Amino acid sequence: MGYIFLVAMVVTSFQFARRRLTSKQWKLIHKSGLYFLWAYPFSVYWWNLYYYGDPQPIDYVFYTMGFLAFALRIAAWSKQRVEKANKEASGLSTPFALRLVGGAIVALGLVVAVTGLQWRVPVSGFLTAPEWSARLELWLPYWPFEPFLSLFIIGFGAMLRTMRPKQTAAA
């Protein structure tokens, strides 16, 4: 899969191929490829730490770098959401309860990121218990996404922290 993305990204970087794509198609190929190519080594180092029995010190370094890269990406998305909401000048801010719950969920995601040895086996068993999920594990890269669970949790918490209430039509 990574080579398919890499070839697509290289080919569409040249003008002859790029002019055959809309800007949305080009962005989709390049963003998807970039995230896939990041996800692969990140997941490899996660498995080295939390699945195989003998992690090396360099595994911790590369896992931490990959985790921080995406955690900072989540923080940047959150900042963009806040700036966009402020630009709309709706006067509404994220309720304190949502910011508090979102912050707690982000903290939980950080704990999950460093405690994979404690939760990997039961969570993997739960996620692959249905027959369809066990089969999907054979065909879908990264399924059932254990390496990314902490990032999903952090992303959800960041989304809650930056939610704004909808304005009603009367407002």
Give structural notes.
By secondary structure, the protein is mainly alpha-helical. The chain has one domain. It has 8 helices and no strands. It has helices spanning 2-11, 15-18, 23-50, 57-87, 96-114, 116-127, 131-139, 149-161. The longest helix has 31 residues, at 57-87. The mean pLDDT is 90.
Approximate shape = globular
Tally of helical segments: 8
How big a fraction of the residues is strand? Answer: under 5%
User: What's the helical proportion of residues?
Assistant: over 70%
Q: Show unreliable segments.
A: none
Order of helices and strands: HHHHHHHH
The structural domain count equals 1
Outline the secondary-structure elements.
Elements: H1 2-11, H2 15-18, H3 23-50, H4 57-87, H5 96-114, H6 116-127, H7 131-139, H8 149-161
Brief account:
Helices cover 74% and strands 0% of the residues.
Keywords:
171 residues; 0% strand; mainly alpha
